[in-house]
Amino acid sequence: MRTILVLLTAALVWAGTTAQQKKSEQPPIKTTVAAILKEPDKFHRKRVQVEGKVDDLKKKTSRAGNDYTTFKLESDDKHLNVFSYGHLNIEEDDTVIVVGVFYKEKRVGRSVFKNEIDASPKVGGSVRRKN
């Protein structure tokens, strides 16, 4: 009986992991900053790919000791906020391609973040310079 319970638990964990991997393997929606800002509900909690210029770049470390990077992704005088764990290898005014999960509004503790792309690797995100 114990063996059956262990096997059942292992099967459920494996199934959940496989479902999560398939979700992150879905290609991002290629779009623009303007399109997201025009219809934020359409993109809320979806993986997106957006291109733009880095502005207001900040590389910081939290009180808990976690490095992170934030910046505004600008395109056609419109901007979205971008967050990623770690200190990214980008500079102010770089043209970048951002892949991540867009949030119309995201609450973290007492803070509220609006119109933000989470480009952290743990959500399948990335930020890379455009050649």
Tell me the strand percentage band.
over 45%
Major β-sheet strand ordering: 2-3-4-6-5
Low-confidence parts: none
Average predicted local confidence, pLDDT: 88
> Sheet bearing the most strands, described?
5 strands, mixed, barrel
Would you report the number of β strands?
7
CATH superfamily: Nucleic acid-binding proteins
Q: Tell me the series of helices and strands, N- to C-terminal.
A: HEHHEEEEEE
State the secondary-structure class: alpha+beta
Q: What would you call the shape?
A: globular
Spatial separation of the terminal alpha carbons = 59 Å
- Level-1 CATH class name: Mainly Beta
* Number of alpha- plus pi-helical segments: 3
Compute the CA-based radius of gyration.
18 Å
Number of domains: 1
Percentage of helical residues? 25-40%
CATH topology: OB fold (Dihydrolipoamide Acetyltransferase, E2P)
**What's the CATH architecture name?**
Beta Barrel
Describe this structure in words.
This protein is α+β, with helices and mostly antiparallel strands and 131 residues long. The chain has one domain (28-129): Beta Barrel (OB fold (Dihydrolipoamide Acetyltransferase, E2P)). It has 3 helices and 7 strands. It has helices spanning 2-25, 33-38, 40-43; strands spanning 29-30, 47-61, 67-75, 78-85, 95-108, 111-118, 126-129. A 5-stranded mixed beta barrel has the order 2-3-4-6-5. A hairpin with a 2-residue loop joins strand 3 (67-75) and strand 4.
